[in-house]
Design a protein that fits this description.
By secondary structure, the chain is of the alpha+beta class. It is built from 17 helices and 11 strands. Strands 2-3-4-1-5 form a 5-stranded mixed sheet. A two-stranded antiparallel ribbon has the order 6-9. It binds 2-oxoadipic acid and nickel (II) ion (NI). Nickel (II) ion binds next to β1 and β5.
Amino acid sequence: AQQPSFVDKDDLRTTFALAMSAMYKAEVPLYGDLVRIVQEVNQARSSKDLPVEERLDLERHGAIRLGTPHELRTVRRVFAQIGLHPVDYYDLSVAGLPMHATAFRPIDPKALSKNPFRIFTTLLRPELLRPEPRQLALQLLGRRNIFSDELVLLLGVGEEQGGFFPDQAERFIAEAMKTFKWHSVAAATHEDYEILAAEHPILADITCFNSAHINHLTPRTLDIEMAEARMKQEGLAVKSRIEGPPARQYAILLRQTSFLALREHISFPVRVSTGLVPGSHKARFGEIEQRGAALTAKGRRLYDEILSEALQRMGSVDEGKDHEEAYKEVFAKYPDDWKALLEQGLVFFECRCTRSARGWTWSGPGSAVPLSRLLEAGVVETVPITYEDFLPFSAAGIFRSNLHSTSGDDDAAFEPFEDRESLESALGSPISDSASLYARLQAESLAKCANALGIDEI
Ligand code: OOG
Ligand code: NI
């Protein structure tokens, strides 16, 4: 008989995402409503510009928050089994959050096209906390174990074998879900919870439970404005604004919004007896996203410049409609036609030969042909490379909308600084750079076209 072979990692990622989606819908019924709204909006929009195999009913990302280097390293190993790898470093301390992050995502284009599901993963930075809450946080984190014995065992087996056989894969997914599920009984007393929440609401979320509960999942919408309007119509409490670039002709980067985290009933253990006391906690929400072209370093610099100017301008006008108008007005400076984006080197693109490439020969001097000439001749076309990553400012906006603090953002008790090395050392592996990944895709597509056209270089 034929040996059963390993389950494909991309397929396993889809199984994982589906399991997570089912679990989250069961845990947070409102999230099921959000998915339905997004599906209705996507159906209402013509889908003519969608690649054929694109599966819109699959979530595009989720997020978890971890407490210790050991947790992050183990999660990295779990995610590697479903084809997810750390890409890009996000410093959230600039936004007053005592944490930094990476995004686990598929890296190669084939894997991305099969299923681009990713998980934004933050790690607590205890060194940014004041000594007392820090000590309490570390004490709570030190005594918790968010991985089942079975999961750790399977992980070792999967790593040694180089994959999972179908029955192992099934157990692996079931055990992994335990790490990310919600616990309605806290692992800390109410007093400890309050101390940590007073230091930072996110700190209580990270340290007071015996799991790294998934805090949101995010389907992709074809029309974020329409989806936002429908969410409001149905009475969902929607975040005050859509993060990222305003609506444009040519979508760039990432736009996102969400319904706000729900206040949920939680029981807290009592120190001196075996009883429980009631309380509540806010962590979980539902988000939607719309993605556009990845930007080059130059394009990103321009985006960041305009973003900070737009935010400043927005801050100087009254809340409400004018607010968004001011934001949009500043962003009007960002070129919004494909030719300009391309010519100014602001976007990453994939080069493809057209049908006219057949039989075409280069009659000019030399054998390196500028892209512009090939575009003029109609033998190649350029298509945007989709941005697969996150935006630190938008992420901070999502975080902030879910913390009840009404104050500004500068009330943090620490000086912000980046610390990529310590995140990499916690991971036990280097973090890839998204810009190099996009640049490589672009270069490979150019080389392939040059080859097909019989020229040395484009
Ligand atoms: C993560 C927030 C960041 C996004 O889409 O930018 C994020 C969190 O709340 O833990 O998911
Ligand atoms: Ni998100």
